[in-house]
Design goal:
Order of helices and strands: HHH
Largest sheet: none
Radius of gyration: 17 Å
Number of domains: 1
Number of strands: 0
Structural class: mainly alpha
Amino acid sequence: MIPPIFASSLILFPATLASWFTTGDATRWIRDLAAALSPGSRSTCSCNAALIVFFCFFYTALVFNSKRRRTT
């Protein structure tokens, strides 16, 4: 459950920044990025899928300790 949560929060981060800083030309790229990552678009779905796969491997690497041996 952790990878989809991290992926969706990273996808929604530019939209959150764009809503905080709505004025000024310096933040235009944040608004453009937020518009490109609007819910339901192809870029959002593909980025979300890629981030979920990345976080699955990342979270497994953090949790799984391959050096610990199991003794029976």
